[in-house]
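Sorry, I am new here, but would you mind making up a protein's amino acid sequence and the tokens describing how it folds?
***
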Amino acid sequence: MTTPALDFDAPPVRRLRADLALRAAAHHGLAEGVCNHFSVALPDDSRRFLINPRGLHWSEVGAADIVLVDEQGTVLQGRHR
């Protein structure tokens, strides 16, 4: 049985986006640059991922900055490329 694809604004996805808001990383000293990332696969069968955008310092990333990408890295939703 496949799990239905979750919407970008569905509560479980909003919680994951908030979890990926990386202010905690900066708080713990993980602030060396802007070219690393954290990502998480959506808990459905869609093979889509949430990832922080490139170019923002860890301390600048908020839940609204997290983007949704497919397995090729194509941005599907979010305000960053």
